[in-house]
Amino acid sequence: MSLAVGDRAPDFTLPGTGDATYSLSDYAGRPIVLVFYPGDDTPVCTRQLNSYNDDLNQFDELDAQVLAISAQDVSSHDSFSGKHGFRFPLLADTDKAVAASYGTL
Question: Is the pTM here over 0.85, yes or no?
Fold first, then answer.
């Protein structure tokens, strides 16, 4: 699947860090930064997510919510997030259905 500018973003509901469930529709009307990343605790992904975390105030100024999505389970995300102090949720797309709906596989 391929999305183009102006296409409606596919909705989803996924479990995530903080023992919560996150739905794209919960953020209707707000800018969303969806970050699809391959894996917790990998060098490139760790740098990538830390860069978002370090500059989170820039997203806050735009009232934009960062949501990071990968195929690991919530316990892996909780450990990864706790280790690095991420201030945005990591969502568990264990069957990769959301990644597929966005064409990121």
Answer: yes
